[in-house]
Amino acid sequence: MTAKVVGNDDERLRAAEGALDEVRDGMKLGLGSGRTAEHFVKALGARVRDGLSIVGVPTSENTARLAGSVGIPLTTLDEQPALDLTVDGADEIDRSFRLIKGGGGALLREKIVAAASAKMVVIVDAGKLVDTLGAFPLPIEVLPFGLGATRIAIESAATRLGLTGDLALRQRDGRTFVTDGGHHIIDASFGRIPDPEALATALSAIPGVMEHGLFLNMASVAIVGRDDGVEKLSR
Q1: Which of the four CATH numbers 3.90.1800.10, 3.80.30.20, 1.20.1300.10, 3.30.70.260 does domain 138-208 have?
Q2: I need a labelling partner for 133 at 20 to 30 A (CA). Which of 98, 147, 162, 190 fits?
Q3: Rounded to the nearest 10 degrees, what angle do helices 35-49 and 61-69 cross at?
Q4: Which residues are the active-site ones (predicted)?
Q5: What CA–CA distance (Å, rounded) separates 141 from 221?
Q6: What is the rounded CA–CA span in Å between residue 121 and residue 16?
Q7: 128 annotated binding-site participant
Q8: Which pLDDT does position 3 carry in this prediction?
Q9: How many whole angstroms separate alpha carbon 177 and alpha carbon 167?
Q10: CATH classification (class only), 9-129+216-227
Q11: Chain segment 178-198, per-residue pLDDT in tens
């Protein structure tokens, strides 16, 4: 299966445009992936064409292509290892600013870029704001080698934490989905995740897990698009 993308596109657009207020001339920016981030990249490109001077580090090949097409100058973390700001979407965000990301398949690069940034701003439509994470299946990026053993280890770790649910190897267009890094993704339908920190620790301890979609202690601002405007939340 492929993780389902849902939400209100008008709200996504409002959130993306609202994030432009966080951008300053001369910044080095992490550019997120996904539908809401695409809106931001397009809006940022318009600002660049109007004279804004920034440089961006894309979190996926798709974002790199889009950013290039709208005139945003790009660099890499090798050339600019410390970024001022990352603007990215999320599949879920709770009131403690814990996120589930990875519905689009770019979670590993997204987390690397976010970790290299002084600040992370999350842009979401109102439906992504939740009380407890887990309604959206948790993406887990895994190495193809030893996939069966890794899957069993994930299931065992979840069971120890009282979590159950289907572990589905992501498919796209009838084939196993492959990330930009050459990995696969297991979408874990755990339902409610009452202790994201414990689950993150357990998953990170599994050798075949390259990264998981729990982004904890990373986001400091959330811009939520609503039908009548935007709401800015700060941690």
Answers
A1: 3.30.70.260
A2: 147
A3: 30
A4: 110 (proton acceptor)
A5: 25
A6: 10
A7: yes
A8: 44
A9: 14
A10: alpha beta
A11: 999 999 999 999 999 999 999
**AA identity, residue 119:** K
220 is in an annotated binding site: no
Supply the residues annotated as catalytic: 110
User: Is there a binding annotation on residue 226?
Assistant: no
Task: Report the C-alpha gap between 119 and 116 in whole angstroms.
Answer: 9
- The residues spanned by each domain of the chain are 9-129+216-227, 138-208
Condensed to tens digits (0 to 9), the pLDDT of residues 87-124 reads 999 999 999 999 999 999 999 999 999 999 999 999 99
Residue 187: strand pairing partners: 139, 168
Q: In degrees rounded to 5, what are phi and psi of residue 99?
A: -120, 150
Residues 211, 213, 217, 222: is their CA dihedral positive or negative? Answer: positive
* 3-state helix/strand/coil string of 109-157: HHHHHHHCECCEEEEEEHHHEECCCCCCCEEEEECCCCHHHHHHHHHHH
**28: which 2 tokens?**
């080095």
